[in-house]
Design a protein that fits this description.
Elements: E1 2-10, H1 21-30, E2 35-41, H2 45-48, E3 53-55, E4 58-66, E5 75-78, H3 90-99, E6 103-106, E7 134-139, H4 140-146, H5 153-158, H6 169-178, E8 185-189, E9 196-199, E10 203-206, H7 210-213, E11 217-223, H8 233-246, E12 249-253, E13 263-267, E14 272-274, E15 278-279, E16 286-290, E17 296-302, E18 305-312, E19 314-318, E20 323-331, E21 334-339, E22 342-344
Parallel strand pairs: 1-2, 2-4, 6-7, 7-8, 15-22
Antiparallel strand pairs: 1-11, 3-4, 4-5, 5-6, 9-10, 11-12, 12-21, 13-14, 13-16, 16-19, 17-18, 17-20, 20-21, 20-22
Length: 346
């Protein structure tokens, strides 16, 4: 399969980000990203003005981030042509996104923070819908701000990459539970704004530039076909969105190492099954994990519970029980890679 790495959940001057499309795509190219998904708040202006497409070796897709009238229940709405009204309840715009053939990913679902009065948490509360595609299991800005204290704030501002904590346990627990009922895809988001702050009234400083954010939480996808700048725009768009819809992807923190080459799949004597698949259980079925580079701690999770772990570059496991299986990888005790589920016998 062909692997591509991207940054999802990016804001531009079309909402509350500081960068234009040229700046964002240039930073993405310099950071080695194959794709970027723009998600400005409640607007698809970049799509309607024709910005979607290839910029050097980076493909830019345009979605939007929708919220309700209380500025809660943020949804990353992808592959749609209309930004829905903030007067709608969350359940309704989730339905509209799905009805339009789009993908809906719940953004930073369990935010809890009080470190910045001007930036309150924006949690997801409308869990009585089952029409969303997936969940943003790891959001750079969300976990960064939730760990911010008066004591560590200077260190956190100086080292925005080093200070990223693992995905929220509550989010992982909910994600695992949902996958017992149906496939719910996990993605990662940078939530990049590149805010500019005026210091002492003399000069302006860009806080967390796009190029810095693009070296943090990434979502890698696996495709059956190769994509490159010579490919048709509509076909490239379809292939990327299909991979995200099917869960052929994994989330990683690039700061701790390039995760390209990570693989998690199931196999028997006849078939290979990828992340995102729901497959029947058989006595010959095995799970295989391969990580790039040197050894790391591989954790195999079933239904939210640890099944086995070992420090190695590969892991092979005979499947004895049905369940939703996924993998976590920790490198030098740092959270690094989180796979999507393979649902077996469910």
């Amino acid at each position: 399969m062909f692997e591509y790495t991207g940054a999802i959940h990016v804001h531009s001057i079309f909402s509350d980000g500081s960068g234009d499309i040229k700046e964002i795509t240039q930073s993405a190219n310099e950071s080695g990203l194959d794709f970027v998904i723009l998600t400005d708040h409640n607007t698809l202006r970049a799509l309607h003005e024709g910005y979607e497409g290839w910029y050097g070796n980076t493909f830019l897709l345009v979605g939007c981030e929708i919220n309700d009238k209380e500025n809660r229940n943020h949804l990353l709405a992808l592959n749609i042509n209309e930004a829905y009204s903030t007067r709608l309840p969350a359940k309704e715009y989730v339905h509209k996104v799905k009805e339009a053939g789009g993908l809906g990913f719940i953004a930073h679902p369990h935010e809890k923070r009080n470190s910045m009065e001007k930036h309150p948490p924006y949690p997801w509360t409308e869990w009585d819908t089952d029409e969303f595609t997936g969940i943003e299991i790891w959001n750079h800005m969300s976990v960064w701000m939730e760990s911010l204290t008066e004591e560590n704030k200077y260190n956190y501002f100086v080292h925005p990459l080093r200070s990223i904590t693992p995905p929220p346990k509550e989010t992982l627990e909910v994600w695992d539970k949902l996958n017992l009922e149906r496939k719910v895809v996990g993605i990662g988001g940078v939530d990049a704004h590149a805010h500019k702050v005026n210091l002492l009234g003399f000069f302006e400083v860009e806080v967390f530039p796009y190029k810095v954010m693009f070296k943090s939480i990434r979502t890698n996808i696996l495709l059956d076909e190769e994509i490159n700048p010579s490919c048709d725009i509509l076909k490239t768009k379809r292939l990327i969105y299909d991979a995200l819809k099917e869960g052929r992807c994994f989330v990683n923190n690039y700061y701790y190492g390039d995760a390209k080459g990570f693989r998690f799949y199931a196999f028997d004597d006849k078939n290979i099954f990828q992340m995102g698949d729901t497959i029947p259980h058989s006595h010959e079925l095995k799970l295989k994990v391969i990580i790039p580079g040197s050894n790391a701690e591989i954790r195999l999770i079933r239904n939210g519970e640890l099944v086995t772990k070992q420090i190695a570059s590969e892991l092979e496991f005979m499947v004895m029980e049905i369940g939703a299986y996924r993998v976590e990888v920790y490198l030098n005790e740092n959270a690094w890679i989180f796979s999507n589920h393979i649902r077996i016998g469910l």
